[in-house]
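For reproducibility, we list the full input for the shikimate-3-phosphate complex.
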Amino acid sequence: MQKQHIILVGPMGSGKSTLGAALAARLGLAFIDVDANIVAAADQSIPEIFAAEGEAGFREREAQALTDALNHPPAVIATGGGAVLRQANRDAMQAAGCVVYLHVSAQEQLRRIEGDRNRPLLGSDAPAQRLADLQSLREPLYRQIANLVIDTSVQTPEQLAAALELRLHALKDSHA
Ligand code: S3P
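The corresponding predicted structure, in tokenized form, follows.
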């Protein structure tokens, strides 16, 4: 397993995919989107996978896609919001590189993803409450494995990628 990945974790709508792509371009690294790889491998959308196999089936696919991503040469890897739920996933991410938790305010998160039909866990009733419930369960897990935390609520992906690049360098220097 490669040790040099930059692995983005955080809730739906925190900007893992957009910031991940911008950061990978800046750093000259490959970008891997675990959700996109799940969809490609299954040849089904995420809602279709949830409908056919339930959340449990999706989590199996997610664990496999994450393992595959971590076995690639160094890359920026965007995970899905629930990838931290399994202990084995958390251990593998921590062992494989630098984990960055993308924090987003509840208000901005809702603005970004409300009404998104591609996210089955969002549901259609009371999405704000649903997101708050997920966050209270998962936030300790994001923080537990994060080497860095960055708030994505206000700045653009390019601004955030520049800031994150500096912080990654500083972290590397402090470990040198
Ligand atoms: C999920 C988040 C989604 C996707 C799936 C489940 C979750 O990814 O993996 O719908 O459990 O929070 P994003 O975080 O990229 O939306």
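The first strand starts at residue 5 and ends at 9. The beta strands are 5-9, 30-33, 75-78, 97-103, 148-151. Both points were considered when choosing residues for closer inspection.
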